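Supplementary Methods. Inverse-folding protocol.

Structures were first reduced to a discrete structure-token string of length 293. This string, shown here, constituted the complete conditioning input.
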């Protein structure tokens, strides 16, 4: 598959593959964490949530969802989180991030039920049943999200290069004669020079297609369908940057993403933030990718 969406998905999956000890230092950031509990968060409909037909959950739907959750045998606790309480928590957590605060309004925040279950519960079944209830936008298992984050050993910033037949917009225009071609030697030289000037850079390394594909196969060995659908030629070459935790990651990531020969750049701290917005606050327009624009 040569679509832009597939290329983006592959690059994101590659970014989340284990990278031989280059663990993102964002994992130590106390401001970007996943709550340490075993709750399943059931977010109710908002007008922007997929499948909600541009409507909020009604009072009756909210009562029905609560009744359903309380009748599930494995459920030990159900608590309601109002839109106002969730928005206040969001404002406190992201108080220093003006762009994030400006992008989310109080009315965007869904109401939710936070559900605790017994240790023997079939969490996947409970989440699936909740997702099918009228008035539910999405149900998210916090334990599952924590496991995904814990298994992620991405570099702090990943810079993916253009490959042959790429459909990524950045590879198709603005590069002169190199449009639609793999990153040229001249483009790579400029990218390396820019990387070496990044403030807060600890180290970086180059990863070729073969190494990327090997890491990908090892990391997703249990995902046979994904591996079968992905070829070596889908793998982009990349530069993997390790950054100081206190450094500004966003600005250099965005600058590198705009350089000729770069298909996309990925910021681990941005991904963790997006995970938090999606999993803890149920914001429907946020799907974690970590891509810099």
């Amino acid at each position: 598959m040569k679509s832009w969406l597939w290329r983006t998905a592959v690059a994101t999956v590659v970014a989340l593959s284990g990278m031989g000890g280059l663990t993102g230092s964002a994992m130590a950031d106390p401001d970007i964490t996943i709550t340490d509990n075993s709750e399943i968060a059931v977010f109710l409909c908002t007008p922007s949530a997929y499948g909600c037909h541009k409507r909020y959950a009604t009072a009756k739907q909210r009562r029905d969802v609560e009744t359903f959750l309380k009748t599930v045998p494995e459920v030990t606790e159900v608590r309601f989180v109002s839109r106002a309480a969730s928005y206040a928590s969001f404002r406190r957590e992201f108080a220093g991030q003006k762009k994030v605060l400006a992008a989310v309004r109080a009315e965007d925040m869904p109401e939710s039920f936070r559900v605790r279950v017994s240790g023997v519960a079939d969490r996947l079944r409970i989440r699936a049943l909740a997702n099918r209830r009228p008035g539910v936008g999405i149900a998210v298992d916090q334990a599952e999200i924590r496991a995904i984050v814990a298994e992620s050993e991405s570099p702090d910033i990943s810079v993916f290069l253009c490959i042959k037949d790429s459909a990524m917009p950045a590879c198709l225009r603005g590069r002169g004669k190199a449009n639609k071609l793999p990153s040229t030697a001249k483009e790579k030289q400029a990218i390396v020079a820019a990387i070496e000037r990044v403030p807060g850079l600890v180290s970086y390394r180059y990863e070729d297609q073969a190494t990327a594909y090997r890491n990908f196969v090892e990391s997703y060995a249990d995902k046979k369908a994904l591996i079968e659908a992905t070829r070596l030629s889908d793998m982009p070459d990349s530069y993997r940057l390790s950054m100081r935790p206190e450094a500004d990651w966003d600005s250099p990531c965005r600058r590198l993403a705009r350089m000729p020969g770069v298909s996309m750049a990925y910021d681990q701290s941005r991904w963790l933030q997006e995970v938090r917005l999606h999993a803890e606050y149920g914001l429907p327009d946020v799907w974690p990718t970590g891509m810099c624009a």
